[in-house]
Write a structure and sequence with these properties.
single chain; Dehydroquinate synthase-like, alpha domain; 2 domains; 14 helices; binds glycine
């Protein structure tokens, strides 16, 4: 089963290919590109040893020269000096303005390689080959690229849309199940914000997905890409609608910050953040207990955290105020209206945010 989702951004439109054994789309994109040149294959120390040869083969079969750069794995490497290293390796490897970068890895590699492509020679195309569920349904699509600054996550970056996204489901075979679960949080998020049917599918298929049935993941990954593509097409630079994709992220980023990025994977923090956003929606009278329970049960069915009894609420509130999404000190919260629809609110008081966070601490 192969699916293609197009992100219709005019002359920057691109396809997302989702299926098994479909890395040939890398070769086909390069063949169509025209004059053969050098392609930089950026990967990391976890993914490179497993899959770099497969992607390199596609690049070379297209008649392009392949320059591989393997960065150390992990969020701690999402920093500006890694960009300099990548650009240095690409210059040494002879890449020029006609070159292309291929990002092979999870969200860190995608964000770092995407940013390197955005600034190398003032911008060259980047082709994304995401290898985690989170990267497949979120970070590889939509053109956000960034590195972290010690003072804030993703604070140095650019919008640089990829030229294609190739999602080979078989690259998930080596992904630890905890990472699969974390990716499912982002899929469930897409259901809550935009598609009740996708949410219902995730409710019904937790067992298959967690048992490693990759075919059961094709539909929710493709549907997530469609939802994201539709949002990005309407609001590429996050002036309005795109912020809906941040459902659960205002609370989630605060939880990541207070847990020093070591306790929870991003998707796990988003799961907690969605529960807090659900509680906020409940406290505002927008959704009822049934909504909150349904969302919580679905996340819990994927083994995702839905409570954190040790949450230091005041610290999380303080972290939230420093969030890069705050404008003039005002935070935007994405709040559920019903399954499949959310609204943006900038009028949430500190007390309301505190109560939503505190709800994660207690059983009810
Ligand atoms: N991860 C949210 C976005 O791409 O806008």
């Amino acid at each position: 089963m192969t699916q293609t989702v197009t992100v219709p951004l005019g002359d920057r439109a691109y396809d997302i290919h989702i299926g098994r054994r479909n890395l040939h789309f890398v070769k086909e994109w390069l063949q169509l590109r025209g004059p053969r040149g050098a392609a930089g294959l950026i990967t990391d120390s976890n993914v490179g040893p497993l899959y770099a040869d497969r992607v390199r083969a596609q690049i070379e079969e297209a008649g392009w020269r392949c320059v591989v750069h393997t960065m150390p794995a992990g969020e701690a490497n999402k920093r500006l000096d890694r960009i300099e290293e990548i650009c240095g390796a690409m210059l040494e490897g002879g890449l020029d303005r006609g070159s292309v970068m291929v990002a092979l890895g999870g969200g860190v590699v995608g964000d770092v390689a995407g940013f390197a492509a955005a600034c190398f020679m003032r911008g060259i195309p980047c082709l994304q080959v995401p290898t985690t569920v989170v990267a497949q349904v979120d970070s590889s699509v939509g053109g956000k690229t960034a590195v972290n600054h010690p003072l804030g996550k993703n604070t140095i970056g650019m919008f640089h849309q990829p030229v294609a996204v190739v999602i080979d489901m078989e690259l998930l075979e080596s992904l630890p199940v905890r990472e699969v679960r974390a990716g499912c949080a982002e899929i469930i998020k897409h259901g809550v914000i935009a598609d009740a049917a996708l949410f219902a599918y995730m409710e019904a298929n937790a067992r298959n997905i967690l048992d490693g049935d990759l075919d059961a993941l094709v539909y929710p990954i493709a549907r997530s890409c469609e939802i994201k593509a539709a949002v990005v097409t309407q609001d590429e630079h996050e002036l309005g609608l795109r912020a809906n994709l941040n459902y659960g992220h205002t609370f989630g980023h605060a939880i990541e910050t207070v847990s020093q990025y070591s306790l929870f994977l991003h998707g796990e923090a988003v799961s907690l953040g969605m529960c807090a956003a659900g509680a906020l929606g409940g406290n505002l009278g927008l959704v009822d207990r049934e909504f909150m329970e349904r969302q919580r049960s679905c996340l819990a069915a994927y083994g995702l955290p839905v409570r954190w009894p040790e949450l230091p609420v005041s610290d999380a509130l303080a972290a939230m105020k420093k969030d890069k999404k705050a404008r003039s000190g005002k935070l935007k919260f994405i709040v559920p209206e019903r399954m499949g629809a959310v609204m943006q609110r900038t009028d949430i008081t500190e007390e309301q945010a505190r109560a939503a966070l505190a709800s994660l601490k207690k059983e009810d």
